Amino acid sequence: MNARSLLFLALAACISNSEASAVSFTPRTNCETQLCENTPTTRGCWGAYDLETNYYKTAPDTGKTVEVWLSVQEGICNQNGYERPCMTFNGTMPGPPIIADWGDKLKIHVTNNLESNGTSVHWHGVHLRNSNQWDGVPGVTQCPIAPGERLTYEFKVTQYGTSWYHSHFSLQSSEGLFGPLIFNGPASANYDEDLGALFLQDWSHSPTFVEWEVKQKFGITSSQTTTLVNGTNTFNCTAEPHKNCVGGGKKFEMVFQQGKKYRIRLINVAIDSQFQFSIDGHSLTVISNDFVPIEPYLADSIILNVGQRYDVIVEANAPPGDYWLRGGWVQSCQGVANDHPESATGIVRYNSRSMRDPTSTSSLSAPVSCLDEPQENLVPYLKLDVGSITDTTVEDINVRLTNAAMFQWTINSSSLVLDWGRPTIQQIYDKERIFPTPYNVVEVEKENEEKEEWAVLVIENKAAAFFGGLAHPIHFHGHDFWILAQESHPWDGSSASFQTKNPVRRDTAVLPAHGYLALAFELDNPGAWLVHCHIAWHSSMGLALEFVESENSISTKIVLENL
Ligand SMILES: *[C@@H]1O[C@H](CO)[C@@H](O)[C@H](O)[C@H]1NC(C)=O
Ligand SMILES: *[C@@H]1O[C@H](CO)[C@@H](O)[C@H](O)[C@H]1NC(C)=O
Ligand SMILES: *[C@@H]1O[C@H](CO)[C@@H](O)[C@H](O)[C@H]1NC(C)=O
Ligand SMILES: *[C@@H]1O[C@H](CO)[C@@H](O)[C@H](O)[C@H]1NC(C)=O
Ligand SMILES: *[C@@H]1O[C@H](CO)[C@@H](O)[C@H](O)[C@H]1NC(C)=O
Ligand SMILES: [Cu+2]
């Protein structure tokens, strides 16, 4: 038998094996043969797997475990020349990158070295199949990790692409507790070099917990001070000198080599801002939204809402020189900057020795509304339609004032409040059949193990006046969702116009002002999964619900010793 027919046999084995695993999630194990190598000119390949692999049903099994130790700690951060107290993973913001291959296992030991706060870590967008207990949500999947304690999170990497890990305890992620989460795998366009994560972020000069007090009372004021690009920027204190303004800030810089193609993984980790990313003189080839590879498309700029990711490829094909990279704060969206959007910049250089500020300009105009990238651009590479829908939940979003005159966001009149000492999955384990009302639990049950079943969530933006004019980036835990509809006008209650043929698929999408968002997800991952607005102020003011999915299949036994 020659090498070619051996290859063919191995491929055939993989195919029949993947068909066999179409119903339940099982890794393919006997496809170790390197059939197609991932190189700068063959980025669609991934050994016996590739972009065509249905990663909701199957994944490689590398047999490899990536083990990481993280310390959650307090300190003083100087990201832009202005010192303030902050919280970090291992002393840096962004925290250290966690990088694994598709099919690896991740084992992450988190030690809480904070003085008095609890903590927890969420793996944003990661499906955590059959590992709901490691989703990192205090009050839902765990108790907070107490100061001085350590918790080990463990899960299989069944997706590939770009995300971030962040604290899910109160407002800690906005204090600096986030870092890159990168899973290597195939890509839908070729590139030479992977430059890693590039974070876009708003940043306050006073601690978020101090601002929170103000925010709750007035609902809308107190925006962030400024912006950071990958954790760094300069800040001009001349107008308002302050003893904390000690200097030392610098612009983010990237060096390009003429002719090369670079992959950049954009991530919006803001507390409440939308960004428009661009590089003067260069276009972007967009290859994925969140963890989903898409048909590549060309863009001059890309809009990122909070919690969203876009991977882009930038070709260094401009005349050698220095160029501004822009992460402009979109002023028509959430948060009114005290600073100018134009200060959210970094520098792309073709000569690493250049020290000059770029003189490049941009003719882009900022968006006037707070929406996502147009849906027609975001075509999933792996084409998947919505299947049989067995459950539909409709919820509306509103605001209210509490007796103590504090603002709260509500979902169907209920604002999410959790008891950190009584996580949802512990209640499930204890067979408490009725969940407390403020846990905002929606139960969805897969009825037939043998069949695909889907659930639908329609969220309507029904707040009055000013509040109804805000858009909300809605994030799903434990699932990607298929966007059935995302409209800027009220819902007529009909599903007739729902898009079910390979619609946009991701884990964070905007609920437009005065409009609605209809999402479908497959009931393929039992657990208690949070769904929430990723504007930290809003989720802290209760804009969240939980799906308890297939309650009888949730295996919570393993988690109990860690609760
Ligand atoms: C984080 O810090 C701890 C010590 O506090 C160290 O053991 C560990 O290797 C660091 N982790 C990373 C990912 O750098
Ligand atoms: C967490 O720490 C901040 C100060 O760093 C404090 O304002 C806040 O109340 C603490 N929250 C909890 C729940 O311990
Ligand atoms: C941004 O910072 C992260 C974390 O420090 C680093 O891994 C990454 O390479 C940086 N991004 C770029 C594009 O340089
Ligand atoms: C800083 O701000 C001052 C006054 O607002 C202005 O005169 C000065 O040019 C600014 N410096 C830089 C480097 O932009
Ligand atoms: C939320 O309220 C709407 C309108 O009153 C109702 O139709 C819907 O069933 C409610 N949803 C849930 C999950 O109770
Ligand atoms: Cu919101």
TrEMBL record:
It comes from the Eukaryota. CDD domains: CuRO_1_MaLCC_like, CuRO_2_MaLCC_like, CuRO_3_MaLCC_like. GO terms for molecular function: copper ion binding; oxidoreductase activity. Residues 72-186, 198-351, 429-552 form the Plastocyanin-like domain. Residues 1-20 form the signal peptide. SUPFAM superfamilies: Cupredoxins (SSF49503). It holds the Pfam family Cu-oxidase_2. Belongs to the multicopper oxidase family. This is Multicopper oxidase-domain-containing protein.
